[in-house]
Amino acid sequence: MPSDLLNVDASFPQFTGEESINQKMERMTSYLYMVLEQLRYTLSNLDSSNFNETGLAEITSEVEESISWLTQTAKAITDRVENAEGDISILTQTAEEIEARVESTEGDISTLTQTAEEIEARVENAEGDISTLTQTAEDITARVESAEGDISTLTQTASSLESRISDAEGNINTVEQTLEGVAFTSSLADGSTVINGGCISTGQILASYIKLGGDLEIYKSVDSTDVGGYLGFTTSANDDSEAMHMASSDGSNEVVVTDNGAALRCAWSTGDGTNGVYAVPNFCYVTANGTRYDFFADHFSTSSSDITLGTGDRYWSAAYLTTVYGSLASSSDEGKKHDMAPVGEKYQKLFQNLAPCAYRYDSEGEAGPVHLGFTAQGVRRAMECAGLGEGDFAGYVREGEELYLKYPEFIALNTRMIQGLLERADRLEARLARVEEKLKLG
After folding, report:
1. Could you tell me which of 189, 161, 156, 159 has the C-alpha nearest to residue 175?
2. Residues near 84 by Cβ (< 8 Å), separated by ≥ 6?
3. Phi, psi at residue 138, to the nearest 5°?
4. Beta strands in 95-178 (DSSP E)
5. Taking a C-beta distance cutoff of 8 angstroms, is the pair 161, 177 a contact?
6. Report for 42-51, 142-151, 185-194, 320-329: range of highest mean pLDDT
7. I want to staple 276 with a disulfide (CB 3.0 to 4.6 A). Which of 23, 164, 265, 406 is the partner?
8. Does position 234 have pLDDT exceeding 70, yes or no?
9. How far apart are CA 1 and CA 9, in angstroms?
């Protein structure tokens, strides 16, 4: 095979001058056909023997560095460039879109796609992490996704901004900003949080501390405009000390806590004063309708002498007193009494008609202790026999349907009856002494 065209056996035609024009044209045409065939053959059978060493080295170097293709059809144009390491870039253009793609030998890929409605940029690495930026006339969306399935998305429109973060377990946190405010939602907790200017609407709040510039207003409901109460900082009314307080909407009912004590106050009363419970150093006290009750470690006192322990439907089951100081002191000053008179015959007849009995209380069970005493009904019958009404003996008490006995009221009656027996015994002893004296004299 000829190594190049210089060795082609086709010398240029020679003319003597005697040839006609037609003869010259025929010889030239034949020559050109021969050269064309030889050229076709040479180009179809090119190999290294057709090039010198310098030219062959230059061509080989260019081929090894990169390869490029340009493909054109009626519908698309594609330009592809690839280097010896395997890196590839492709540019594809159609009437509808333009796409540029760059891929490295490590597997990293970036793509830029443009249409009339949208531009999208996407970058992906060999590990599977992907970031995407998409832009349309209405919105811009940025998305980042990890190979583990974690995804964050930021979307912007003319009227809103939304940030969304999710993980492979399905947990989702979202922040959305509109003209109405900023809303926070999370699948990790129920409800949502909305921040709108100076207003925060939310459900549960967990915080190390909350710093307030004044009272925290507590509304009656989520949608209500009526304040139900306050929680915040105040000054104690007793000693001007700093305090935390919780108060009703009008401030009349309040819980106050200071370094010196605590108070629970209620304005509901009969008009004699504020009701409340107070804890101060060394003791506690309660105020109710103008009366104060003080509770110390070793005693209890009150500002009123008209106090009842228990009521008709709220009994005291027992009172335990020490052996040394155990006693009940009752006011008995003559100056505080009137209509005083000796215990008459009716009360002596009452005593004679009393029917002491042994019994057990139903509340103490079948095996409860045996008590000795009276029944209220039995005392009433004895009173009736003696001609006494319910108001004539304070030892018998009726409150509604309930009947009670005040046993201390029986002490004086017992005392008078014992005194009577002693008087009778004295008389009998004196009479017996006189009889014995007469017998001695007889």
Report:
1. 161
2. 64, 65, 66
3. -95, -30
4. 97-103, 109-115, 118-124, 130-136, 139-145, 151-157, 161-166, 172-178
5. yes
6. 142-151
7. 265
8. yes
9. 12
- Element holding 247 (H helix, E strand): strand 242-248
Tell me the DSSP string of 257-282.
EETTEEEEEE--SSSS--EEEEEETT
- Cα dist from 415 to 77, 305, 327, whole Å: 130, 27, 19
* 376-386 helix and 345-353 helix, angle to the nearest 10 degrees: 140
Place of tokens 């915040």: 232
Phi then psi dihedrals of residue 329, to 5 deg: -100, 125
Sole residue written with tokens 């021969």: 34
Q: Are 77 and 71 in contact (CB under 8 A)?
A: yes
Spatial separation of the C-alpha atoms in residues 280 and 266, rounded to whole Å: 18
Higher pLDDT, 42 or 169: 169
- Is-contact 408 330, C-beta < 8 A? yes
Tell me: the pLDDT tens digits for 86-127? 889 999 999 999 999 999 999 999 999 999 999 999 999 999
What local confidence, expressed as pLDDT, does residue 3 receive? 47
Residues 6+ apart with CB under 8 A from 112: 99, 100, 101, 119, 120, 121, 122
Residue type, 115: T
Which pLDDT does position 2 carry in this prediction? 47
What pLDDT shows up at residue 66? 64
Q: 178 to each of 160, 187, 192, 338, 410, how far by Cα in Å?
A: 5, 21, 15, 84, 84
Single out the residue of 67, 91, 88, 64 nearest to residue 77, CA to CA: 91
Query: Hey, what are 78's tokens?
Result: 């594609």
Only one residue has tokens 């929680």, namely 231
Amino acid 116 reads A
**Do 188 and 171 touch, CB atoms closer than 8 A?**
yes
Residue 204 φ/ψ, nearest 5 degrees: -75, 140
> What is the C-alpha to C-alpha distance for residues 383 and 247, in angstroms, rounded to an integer?
55
Residue 311 is given by DSSP the state B
Written as six digits, the tokens of 222 are: 């989520």
Cβ–Cβ under 8 Å, residues 201 and 183: no
* Residue in the structure block whose two tokens are 């609407």: 201
For the chain, the 3-state helix, strand and coil shares in percent, each to the nearest 5, are 25, 35, 40
